[in-house]
Design brief:
10 helices; ACP_syn_III_N; globular; cytoplasm; EC 2.3.1.180; five-stranded mixed β-sheet; Peroxisomal Thiolase, Chain A, domain 1; lipid biosynthesis; alpha/beta; fatty acid biosynthesis; binds coenzyme A
Length: 325
Amino acid sequence: MMRTAIIGTGSQLPERVLSNTDLEGMVETSDEWITTRTGIKTRRIAGPGEETSLLAAGAARRALAMAGVAPEELDLILVGTITPDMTMPSCACLVQKELKARRAFAMDLNAACSGFLYALDVADKYVRCNPAMKVLVIGAETLSSRVDWQDRNTCVLFGDGAGACVVTGREGDGGYLAGRLFADGNLWQLLHLEGAPGHNPGLRPNDHEQPSIMMYGREVFRHAVRAMADAVGKVLADQGVAPAELSLVIPHQANIRIIRSLADHLALPMENVYVNVDKYGNTSAATIPIALDEAHRNGRLRRGDLLLLCSFGGGFTWGASLIRW
Ligand SMILES: CC(C)(COP(=O)(O)OP(=O)(O)OC[C@H]1O[C@@H](n2cnc3c(N)ncnc32)[C@H](O)[C@@H]1OP(=O)(O)O)[C@@H](O)C(=O)NCCC(=O)NCCS
């Protein structure tokens, strides 16, 4: 059977590491509070030359090299992002320019932290129509540019980075088995970001000319656990798969307590759940493709393994995807 398969992965993180100890000097917080409430120890911060499109292009080059696909062979570039370099053109068009992927059409997809899962599902639909298509699917963010560095409720949580994968049609049992996507715009106030794209490599405090990310953390937490568990339950039921059959789960990396609650709900041992939120914090649409690339390069994925991806983010948006590697 012909299915959409991931044939290459890549990621790129900014050079600068910002630790919890560094944050202790910026806002009233402590390494102990951040670690116990979120699991985050460090995050990466983009500097000049590490704009969202450049991180995305870096991740894409690695994914293309692994896939053995030249940029000119790409048909479509999809970038999940809420922090494009500018409002127009899209981040995807800037990536297309960087890669010299002349044949590809390109577009961004805004589904906040679920951006990569949404983009992967869209890519699957194109490839199902034309299995020869080669699609670059990216999640890339520089949320440090849109955080109020005086707001301890949010600034400790987010980081910057990009992850990418190349997908195309492949004959066999493996590939993208199913995806379930959801949204509920009624709850938009609980997690939102107004205003136009911006850049803030100096981590200046919010001057209130540029709106910053707003979040009601406790409410978001509650919805995130419930919604992801529901999406996972649905996608597994669609495919007749039991949680115990999953070789690896890569959840959106926002908070270790959300991840543990999800693992508890699925009765999955944490050894089967990929965690790197400690290193990178919440990189929104980039968390899943960065983790996927790390897991792949670290040998955590073998042909035939069942892989589950799930996410939750602003919108609200959420979803789950099941892949046979
Ligand atoms: C943000 C989050 C870590 C806060 O944890 P929490 O246990 O809910 O904590 P609360 O918001 O109830 O705050 C508890 C106290 O810690 C304080 N606090 C908040 N941030 C702090 C920080 N960085 N350092 C120290 N104290 C902090 C609060 O002011 C509050 O103090 P108060 O009780 O005196 O008012 C948690 O709610 C969360 O992770 N939510 C989901 C966030 C998320 O994943 N968002 C993205 C989804 S895509």
